[in-house]
Specification:
CATH architecture of the largest domain: 2-Layer Sandwich
Radius of gyration: 32 Å
Distance between the termini: 48 Å
Strand order of the largest sheet: 3-2-1-4-5
Number of strands: 5
Shape: elongated
CATH class of the largest domain: Alpha Beta
Structural class: alpha/beta
Largest sheet: 5 strands, mixed
CATH superfamily of the largest domain: Ribonuclease H-like superfamily/Ribonuclease H
């Protein structure tokens, strides 16, 4: 490809070569006329004599010989380890005694997919689900989240002191110091739109069928307020999602389920829960469960309206929803 500052395009090269070869111009005169060096004029004239107009196109810069290239046998060993074990360049390099950059060049040269594009159990390239419009597919799932005891958990107090949270001895001096522990779990029910990544989530007490059904009714009403009409819902095969209560809550909405033991199919909501854990649940040291719960609506609003999303080109999910209420708040 001709770069932007090249003095000659393919048409200009042909004109120069014809002036020299067909019209008999001296090389110096042709070089001055086309504002190039005499060496350049000589090169294009020579190519025109040997190959005609077709020789004016750019040639590959790849050398004819590469004496220092990795031997074919070594390349085959690299590819074999990659396909069978699905290792990265560093681990393959340690095994075969090669520099990781050498392994990386071989993998790139043969066009092998990156590990993050592969399904680890099968080695197949992951086919990502991408909805074209808001509401085409809403992903629904539940995440179990342990409550924080009064005074803070082990992240706040250290593992030695924080271990009292799991003890059953109510006469413990540590329990008396920090108060009764907040035992149990929160169940984060989440519905996320596959196109915009707009999320609706609630902290609920369980994951029973009635809870899942009433959650969906509230989530669907919220999506409707945002101007999104849900047409399909994707869940796993949990008992709450296979119940008649959840089926009745969906109504005319089509219900899709993932294959058993394949959480990757519902990867958008799974990734949301991971982001939620990193940026809210464990982002700071909370002294109580109530303090963390109070931060959740604030974080969720930030996620929907202000936090940049890599899959959306650095824009927040709200930018993909036309006329979304509260977007600029």
């Amino acid at each position: 490809m001709v770069h932007r500052n090249a003095p000659l395009s393919e048409t200009g090269r042909l004109r120069l070569a014809r002036c020299v070869v067909d019209d008999g111009w001296p090389l110096r005169r042709a070089a001055e006329r086309f504002q190039v060096s005499t060496t350049t004029a000589s090169r294009w004239a020579s190519r025109y004599r040997n190959g005609g107009p077709a020789a004016m196109a750019d040639r590959s810069s790849r050398p004819h010989r590469s004496p220092n290239q990795t031997p074919t046998r070594t390349e085959r060993r690299i590819i074999k380890v990659r396909v069978l074990r699905r290792w990265g360049p560093h681990r393959i390099g340690y095994l075969l005694g090669l520099h990781p950059s050498t392994v990386h060049r071989v993998l790139t040269r043969y066009g092998l997919a990156k590990l993050r594009w592969l399904d680890r159990p099968t080695g197949r390239v992951i086919r990502r689900i991408e909805s074209t419009h808001c509401g085409d597919l809403v992903h629904v799932d539940v995440k179990k989240l342990g409550k924080i005891p009064a005074g803070g958990g082990w992240r706040m107090l250290g593992k030695t002191v924080g271990r009292h949270n799991s003890r059953t001895d109510r006469s413990s001096g540590l329990r008396a110091k920090y108060g009764e522990t907040a035992r149990g779990y929160h169940f984060l029910h989440t519905a996320i739109d596959g196109h915009s990544r707009l999320a609706y989530s609630e902290l609920l007490a369980d994951e029973r069928k009635q809870t899942a059904a009433t959650f969906w009714l509230r989530a669907n009403a919220w999506f409707n307020q945002c101007g999104i009409t849900v047409r399909n819902v994707l869940t796993d095969n949990g008992s709450c999602y296979r119940s008649h209560d959840f089926r009745d809550a969906l109504g005319d909405i089509e219900h899709r389920r993932t294959r058993p033991y394949r959480p990757q199919t519902n990867g958008k909501v799974e990734r949301f829960h991971r982001t939620l854990a990193d940026e809210w649940a464990y982002a700071q040291l909370y002294t109580s469960d109530a303090e963390r719960c109070a931060e959740f609506p604030i974080w969720l609003h930030t996620y929907n309206h202000h936090r940049g999303h890599t899959a959306l080109g650095g824009q927040p999910p709200a930018t993909r929803v036309p006329n979304l209420p509260g977007h600029y708040s």
